[in-house]
Amino acid sequence: MTAPTTSAAFPASAARERRPILEIRDLVVDYGYGEDRVHALRGVNLTLHEGEVLGLAGESGCGKSTLVYAATRLLAPPGYISAGEVLFHPEGGGEPIDVLRQDERSLRAARWQDTAIVFQGAMNSLNPVYRIGRQLTDTIAAHRPEMTRPEREERARELLSMVGIAPNRISSFPHQLSGGMRQRVMIAMALALEPRVLIMDEPTTALDVVMQRQILEQIMELRDRLGFAVVFITHDVSLLIEIADRIAIMYAGEIVEDAPAQDVYRRPRHPYSDGLLHSFPPLRGPRRELAGIPGSPPDLAHLPSGCPFRDRCAFAWDACAAIPPRLVPPAVPGDSPGRLVACLRHDPQAVRYGGFEPLPAPDRLAL
Amino acid sequence: MKFLARRVGFYAITAWAAVTLNFLIPRMLPGDPVQSLINRYQGSIPSSAVHSLYVLFGLDTKKSLWQQYVEYWQQILHGDLGLSFVHYPTPVSEVIAQSLPWTIGLVGIATIISVVGGSLVGVYLGWRRGSWADGIVPVTTFFSSVPYFWLGLLFISLFAVTWRWLPPGQGYDTALTPGWTPAFVGSVLQHALLPALTIVLSSVAGWILGMRNMMVTVTSEDYVTVAQAKGLSERRVMFGYAARNAILPQVSGFALSLGFVVSGTLVMEMVFSYPGIGYELFQAIGGKDYPLMQGIFLVITFSVLAMNILADIVYVILDPRTRQEA
Amino acid sequence: MSNMPLDVVPVDAAAAAESAQVDTVVPSRQRFVFLRGAKAITGLVILGVFAVIAIVGPWIAPYDPDEMTADLLVHPSWHHLMGTDHLGRDIFSQLIVGTRGVMIVGLVAGVIATVLAIAVGVSAGFLGGVGDEVLSSLSNIFLVIPALPLIIIICSQLSDAGNFVVALVLAFTGWAWGARLLRAQTLSLRRRDFIEAARASGEKTWRIVWFETLPNLTAIIASSFISTVTFAVLSQTTLAFIGVTSVSDWSWGSILYWAQGNQALARGAWWWFVPAGLLIALLGMALSLVNFGIDEFVNPRLRLAGLTPREMRRRKIRPRIGFTVVAKDAPRAVARPAVVPVTELDEPADESLPADAVDAPTGFEPPASLRRSATPDSTGPADHEEAAR
């Protein structure tokens, strides 16, 4: 993958060895158990590599959060996983572990060491009746029983100062902290055990812009220092272009495009990615027109046949109503290897198999 | 401490409202039943007692309502609640002072067992939703749909009359002289067992359900998911994160429903002829002893307020957010 | 009387409703959907039977309940279905005739108390400020003051309190809980978009209350009505049992009064006091069932989506927080279909998910973290102080 040159604020790390750390395979997640359950994820494939910053973008309700919660088995009822594998590659090689088959004991032991999460609602992520220190140290105590109490407290102070909070805040209650501080506490907590994967679910949505930037810079700096991989969820694609190495765009419970960040930015291959990019003003670079995407995301309970995006798509034709698209390399010569798109305009083989005449990818999606 | 200040203000108003209701009710309702009682005891009531009854029940119609109200307050603050007719000529305050400890002992202990036990069961049921334990819910619903007193009747007929395991009523064996002797204490405990069991059985359902539903609500909070994500032990997540927060509304719910709980247990004393406040109230109803009834109402209200203050203190201890400096 | 804590059940309904979006403007046709579940229907059927008995009771009773015979304290038999009392009166007839008093008191007290609760609760929620302070303090005072002694004082000073008087007194002492619930719900409703929109477009307050707010409070109002009826039925029975109300009017409580007063227990005359208690329990259960139905509607978190608990156990699906169920063998409708031509075109999908959450029992319920983004700080200290009051 190519190191982007545009982003000065967050120099993305140079290409590391592309060793996978977390592999999600054909993950299907349903909400509800009866006949009228809803498929929130419909066979998602995604791989996270060591040290990589992977951005996950899409409109609200497209399944971004569901994906990471299911992959960590934290998804609340009535959500449940009805198919798939989530493979975690242990440090230093060895057989990957399927998180979905792990028994409760080993899953509990592995949590927060392997994968730590910064949740969307910083306001509700902290237990309101415990002091910050207690919430930091109980994590350490659960996984590092050999550490003494003073050692744990020392570590908690260290973590707080690492995210720019005065160590004496250790005895504060969550309600005594501002929103930004709470989110920093959550980040400190996530890094307590130096996890290999850090998942951030819209970590800055509730914060003001200045605070957002500070926190992002901090995360990226810590990432460069500690070398963990990041899954960053947001609906703000322009933000991802700055910080992510690779971006996966989700729509209606599926990944529709998966490509290096700069490729998504400069050469989107899926009409939805294209629309998403044009609904945000670019932070840098030339001005362009903001178009937005007409219509709204489909009801997952009543998905249309074929491509779920077809009702909102300018390039849809009758094949789109009949054939559900699959993730394939785009039909554009010279594209980065490993980039994928789920659009029939890039999949003439499937179109032909379905008995339709393929149409070429429009110029806009084949830059 | 703004929280506590507000609460104290609220209790002051409630106490005032209770006293004022007590003042207004006999004056607003038609008829002067107390006057006829006084007439019946003509001559044998000392004139000071007659005066206090006049003040309590507004029989002195020559005075303005406001004047009556002021005098009423003065008398209440001196602890003079009039004479009891059922226990003639014992003052109401003395009757209450004798019976209150029995009620506090029985109702207090039974309620604590019920609240603590019910909450623990509720924590478990709320946490383990979808397991066999959900089957307990309909059973507890049945017990909470039955009136306290009927369950008492049923238990007396089974445990006391049919099987003769436990005494059917009274606070202790009347053959014994009250005192701190092992025999007497044993007898008190033996007599309290059946009423206490009935109170616990019929009230525990509410606490189980309340706590279960709060647990269900709290377990969908993010901090519980975070606690699971951190890989803490099941026990720690369940008690330290979920139950620790679910208990807060349970405490305030407890404070609010105390009035109802106490009312129910008063009837229980009536069924078991237990020598507490409730039984005195029952006797007062039978003997049309209005001074005793009104005195009991005031004392019960003040006891409930006192327990509310305790619940508030517990709440402040449990919830750091209420301790915020204003 | 006794069983207040049952009424604690919907305590978090307000909070839950807020997140579950149950009451985005409900079409009038669906306003009573909360009475559709199996629990609610069972409860309603039982209530219906009691209502019929209350109406036709005196005509279908086999004996005059006051008629004394020589059959003193006889066991239940075909002749006397539930035996007789110490004066040879037929207990079955007393039960049937006594149903009316219980139902009338429950209904009248329930209606009046609910009207009071709506008046106080909704205005408190809408007024805000000092008016809210005063009204909610008022309802809290009535909650904290123990009702039974107060009712006893009032009823016993009224000579021969009849059913309507008792119902009035019960309504006067029993409205506060409903008012509290309704106030909380109104407050959360008031912040909702469609009410804000109505205000912004200059609609009159009474119109907002009548057409926008009340229809969306139907479930809570129904629940508070049911709770008050339960309270009234149990109180009426208790009052009759301790002899505060007129003991010559038949009701289930007065049967128990006569039983207790004439040593039914010591004489082993179980048929004298067991049936009346069971009837009260049955009525109470029916009311609770209706309330559970409403509660599960209002608070979807209490509901296991789509499957009955038994079915879930059979399939070994045990929903847990923090350990998502992996049920790979569960039959799946669609996963990712192979590339196979589909000929017919489906109807375009509905627009938004939450709108049909009212109807579909398994509406798409996104994880809590997804839902909360709009009100990130909904459990601030202010709310908690509120909860404590």
Automatic annotation (TrEMBL), chain A:
* The keyword ATP-binding belongs to this UniProt entry's keyword annotation: yes
MF term (GO), any: ATP binding
Q: Where is the ABC transporter domain?
A: 22-277
Membrane topology per the entry is:
Peripheral membrane protein
- Any Pfam family from its record, for instance, is ABC_tran
- In terms of superkingdom, the source organism counts as Bacteria
Keywords in alphabetical order: ATP-binding, Cell membrane, Membrane, Nucleotide-binding, Transport
Q: Which residues cross the membrane?
A: none
- Primary localization class, coarse: membrane
- Protein family (similarity comment): Belongs to the ABC transporter superfamily.
Q: Where in the cell is it found?
A: Cell membrane
Name it: ABC transporter ATP-binding protein
TrEMBL record, chain B:
Places the protein is found: Cell membrane; Membrane
Membrane-crossing ranges are 7-25, 102-127, 148-166, 188-209, 254-275, 295-318
Concerning SUPFAM superfamilies, the annotation shows: MetI-like
- Where is the ABC transmembrane type-1 domain positioned along the sequence? 100-311
Its domain of life reads Bacteria
Family annotation (InterPro entries)? MetI-like, MetI-like_sf
UniProt keyword annotation of Transport present? yes
Q: Does the keyword DNA repair apply?
A: no
Q: What membrane topology does the annotation report for this chain? A: Multi-pass membrane protein
Q: Which UniProt keywords apply?
A: Membrane, Transmembrane, Transmembrane helix, Transport
Q: Name one Pfam family in it.
A: BPD_transp_1
Name the family.
Belongs to the binding-protein-dependent transport system permease family.
Q: What protein am I looking at?
A: ABC transporter permease
Q: Which organism is it from?
A: Cellulomonas alba
Taxonomy of origin reads:
Bacteria, Bacillati, Actinomycetota, Actinomycetes, Micrococcales
